[in-house]
Amino acid sequence: MLNAKAAGLVKPNARYHGIVGSSPLLEINGFDFQRSFTSDYLHSICLGIIKYLMMIWINGKKDDPWLISKEKIDILKHRLQQVKPPHEISRSQFNLDKIALWKASQFRAFALYFFPVLDGILPEPYYSHFCSLSYILQLLLQESVKKTAVVKCEPLSESFVRDVEYLYGEEYVSYNTHLLPHLITSALEWGLPWAHSAFIPEGFNGELTSLFKGTQCVIEQMTHHYMMRNVLRNDAINIMTTNDLPKKILDMLYDLLCLPVGERKKFCSQKGVQIERVKLLGRPTERKLNPTEQAAAKDFFNRLLMPCYDSLIWQFFPRLMLKHGSVFTTTNYSRSPNRINYCAYMSDGNFVIIESIIYCSSLSFLKCFLIARVLGDISKSALRPDDHFNLETFPGQTIQFVGTNFIRVYDAVEIKKKGVLCMYNSLSDSGTATALVNRFESD
Asked: Can you give the residue range of the structural domain that contains 14?
């Protein structure tokens, strides 16, 4: 067998640059150690930079300029208690007293969607600095993004690392902080971080542990149960999709297949009205449109060059489910009071609050539409770093909005993503909204 040294692939007595040690390390010709490995943002960013910064904000020294006072911590706790995430964010508790025990998904959700709670609490230069990190994460975790937008993030990531030393001090520049620019490089060369992060395999660990029950012959148990599930999987899915099964039977099949919540919704046995990519759920109520709804409907039909059927009896549904399993509700849906599933990001770039889900079978060209309040009818602005970086906007990024009184009618299929409301104040009619970044990572 031809060894690596004889083939000329390894430099004799070469050391890997940047590592000091007594043992010689091999350097392979044409192999770039820096670019040949991806950076896992679960550990380097979520459990690295984000956790580290939040810990020193809360548990820092008395003379630290970034330290959040006890009075402001109480305000921050109150704001976090008011947070009502959608069902896609399963870990909804953000207890600052137990921040050391937070999971990576909680730090991820905080940096992506709920960081505006720091506004007015964290001193301005440190808040703006953290907003830069939030922008980078939101951009890189999109399901698809322009390459030019990722390239323009490189100077921002390098600036973030330099500002850590400037704002906090050299001793706070950790190895994880240094990995942030490499995350940009990794995204350009290996794909966006969600495609190779540890969130998906770590989320699968729970399913693996369910494959064995005893302490003896663990590998054999896992192999046996895995093979048995593969044999039964296709038959079970066929039964779930073609039969109206009792809930106990469905739950047994869900547990057998280890289906996550998002996948279970696809096999939901609830009866509803299927319209294109939308399924209407729940018991409908019938009534005519009120004057405000009639005006919005008239404007909608005018855009389609069709007459408005405002005299018809419409069916109002409490929920709808998209093809990929995401469920939206109306504002008056009371069965999940601690969740907000009525905020949506639409194809026209607006965030809306869904007031009504309406169905009319007499309209052949349009059977389902939404009556929604558009967020930011007075003003709205994207939350992103300073303009001198020449950064690009991307669909669904965080916006600050004022005003929600503009009523508009949408086709139900115009929903692109679910929105996450944060710092929403009904008294001042203002807040922030962000679209869920992707549907692939397990929470």
From this structure: 1-33
